């Protein structure tokens, strides 16, 4: 697991989520602090050392690196070289939107990451419940009926099985002018995904709406249904613009009150030569 740092992360949250995501006996953690320019090495090293010491004390195998350059390029390069199977990154959530509106490092890394990205917010609307060791009871999975959006489901299945999570597949009809056959095909695809997950032994339910406002409905469900994790695939920049294109994913990342597990579908469905 690769954990990129910028000095703003909460040490307690990094430790807590690392423990909950995967057993320390099965995982090696690499901390990476990238500085755009020289001058803050001492501060960066102190922050990395604090997290490294805490993780090591908790039983993890941890390494730490400090690099200079563009944070996005260095993080993606490091993830490829490891190779990383998961990135754990922090954003500033609802109360820190200034940098995010310009396109956060997290969002840019997501576009190019070779593996899923677990995104937590460094500022939370509510304090964490320290005695609750299972933060992933309910996982919301927004889908648009395409194979691309469903590419995240194999990742969701592994995560839900490990944490005994309930999976809620959600779809909000985007276009009222869509042919009836297309809407029926979307509904059938979601039902098939639901059956497949249930046959894999997971607790799963299907939630479909026709409000045609996917961002708002996803965010509403996060709050109203006490969702613990949102997992979705981003279509990325070269995909056809649909309900779950990159802009929808970005808005959910910016405004979600819970962590997210996201992976750009472009890296799961590499373009065919000649496309």
Structure characteristics:
275 residues, Rossmann fold, 3-stranded parallel β-sheet
If helices are DSSP runs of H or I spanning 4 or more residues, what is the number of helices?
A: 9
The main sheet comes to:
7 strands, mixed
Strand content: 15-25%
Contiguous low-pLDDT stretches (5 residues minimum) are: 93-102, 124-131, 237-243
Q: Tell me the count of domains.
A: 2
Strand order within the widest beta sheet: 4-5-10-9-6-7-8
* Helicity range: 25-40%
Kindly provide the radius of gyration, computed on alpha-carbon positions and rounded to a whole number of angstroms: 19 Å
CATH superfamily of the largest domain, by name, is HUPs
CATH class of the largest domain: Alpha Beta
The topology string of helices and strands comes to EHEHEHEHHEEHEHEHEHE
Cα separation of the termini: 33 Å
Please name the CATH architecture of the largest domain: 3-Layer(aba) Sandwich
Global shape: globular
Give the structural class: alpha/beta
Number of strands: 10
Mean pLDDT: 84
CATH topology assignment of the largest domain: Rossmann fold
């Amino acid at each position: 697991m690769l954990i990129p740092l910028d000095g703003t992360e909460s040490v307690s949250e990094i430790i807590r989520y690392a423990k909950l995501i995967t057993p320390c006996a099965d995982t090696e953690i690499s901390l990476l602090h990238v500085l755009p320019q020289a001058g803050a090495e001492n501060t960066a090293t102190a922050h990395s050392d604090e997290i490294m010491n805490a993780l090591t004390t908790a039983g993890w195998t941890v390494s730490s690196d400090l690099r200079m350059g563009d944070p996005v390029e260095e993080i993606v390069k490091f993830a490829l070289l490891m190779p990383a199977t998961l990135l754990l990154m922090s954003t500033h959530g609802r109360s820190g939107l200034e940098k995010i509106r310009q396109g956060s490092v997290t969002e840019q890394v997501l576009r190019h990451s070779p593996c899923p990205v677990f995104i937590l917010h460094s500022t939370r609307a509510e304090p964490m419940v320290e005695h609750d060791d299972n933060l992933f009871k309910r996982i919301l999975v927004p889908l648009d009926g395409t194979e691309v959006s469903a590419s995240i489901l194999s990742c969701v299945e592994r995560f839900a099985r490990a944490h005994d999570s309930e999976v809620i597949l959600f779809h909000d009809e985007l276009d009222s002018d869509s042919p009836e056959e297309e809407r029926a095909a979307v509904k059938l695809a979601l039902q098939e995904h639901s059956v497949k997950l249930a046959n894999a032994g997971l607790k799963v339910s299907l939630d479909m709406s026709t409000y045609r406002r996917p961002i708002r409905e996803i965010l509403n469900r996060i709050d109203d249904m006490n969702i613990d994790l949102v997992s979705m695939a981003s279509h990325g920049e070269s995909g056809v613009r649909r309900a779950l294109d990159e802009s929808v994913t970005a808005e959910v990342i910016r405004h979600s009150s819970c962590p997210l597990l996201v992976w750009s579908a472009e890296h799961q469905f590499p373009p065919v030569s000649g496309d």
